[in-house]
């Protein structure tokens, strides 16, 4: 059974191992295993605490049968003008893909964002990551632009798409 909950300090060890495994098998995540290897559970716990203290940040974990299956973060802007625009980062472990984990994470994050007063969600995806792009399109995101030669992947530069989803259609109150 799938269970979602905000990241807690006590989840730090599990997340540390999960994310190390994720980036070792999914090279479409931004950090490399070498860049991540120095992270500690205490640093992860501190990150979870910082997210929990902010009303425009979410760090949500997905658990499947007691195993960490995925995560999604929403980080709103720090200024008044971009506070309700949330940037998303997400990942699902290889063993849990195509089982509805990502869809559940995106639905929960959007529900939280709407309740928190966000007017927009956005993310980036490597242009060649077709599976992720299709997931984001199915979640209602649209490709809004292309950052040409934005990243170096597998010793070659690749494009990155900016995708967004507008949550509110009416103008915001002044």
UniProtKB/TrEMBL annotation:
SUPFAM superfamilies: Acyl-CoA N-acyltransferases (Nat) (SSF55729). This is GNAT family N-acetyltransferase. It comes from Chitinimonas viridis. Pfam families: Acetyltransf_1. The keyword Acyltransferase applies. Gene3D superfamilies: 3.40.630.30. PROSITE patterns: GNAT. InterPro entries: Acyl_CoA_acyltransferase, Bact_Acetyltransf, GNAT_dom. The keyword Flavoprotein does not apply. Residues 2-168 form the N-acetyltransferase domain. It comes from the Bacteria. Keywords: Acyltransferase, Transferase.
